[in-house]
Specification:
This protein is an all-alpha fold. The chain has 2 domains: about 60 residues, no CATH class; about 60 residues, no CATH class. It is built from 7 helices and no strands. The mean pLDDT is about 85.
């Protein structure tokens, strides 16, 4: 769907035109080099793609990227937490921008609700807030959130 939205935005002139053929070829070579570094070498390694960065790139181009601050401002803190720490769904790219969808918020909420219920049954009681706290502590430690006391 995101690729279709990109192409229609390109045709309608809502986004900047494609770069020259030389620039596109350079970009493709650069991409294949990064694939070789990040994935094992195989005949199919050139067709691999990381879903979230790809969707983010396209959505930024067409103006529907779900920026965290905009999500917080429009939908509030609880929904912001769901976007930041919940399951990524294509509906996230329908929250803001041109051709946004009124039902996107509800779809994301329901998807996360039922996915987390299933995960909770399988996890035998582990709380997700523990993982969030651990990640927060690691980030704070790495970026100087804890200063040494002399």
């Amino acid at each position: 769907e995101m690729q279709s939205r990109y192409v229609t935005s390109l045709i309608k002139g809502f986004i900047k035109p494609l770069p020259s053929q030389n620039e596109m070829e350079k970009s493709i070579r650069k991409y294949y080099e990064s694939v070789r570094k990040n994935y094992c070498k195989s005949a199919r390694s050139g067709i691999r793609l990381s879903y979230i960065p790809y969707m983010d790139t396209l959505s930024k181009e067409i103006g529907c990227y779900p920026y965290p601050y905009e999500i917080f401002k429009k939908f509030g803190f609880n929904f912001w937490k769901l976007i930041m720490f919940g399951i990524v769904t294509p509906a996230q790219y329908r929250l803001l921008g041109r051709n946004s969808w009124e039902g996107a918020k509800e779809a994301i909420s329901l998807y996360n609700k039922y996915s987390f219920k299933a995960a909770a049954r399988e996890s035998k009681g582990y709380k997700s807030w523990i993982y969030i706290l651990i990640i927060l502590l690691i980030v704070l430690n790495r970026y100087g959130g804890f200063k040494k006391i002399n």
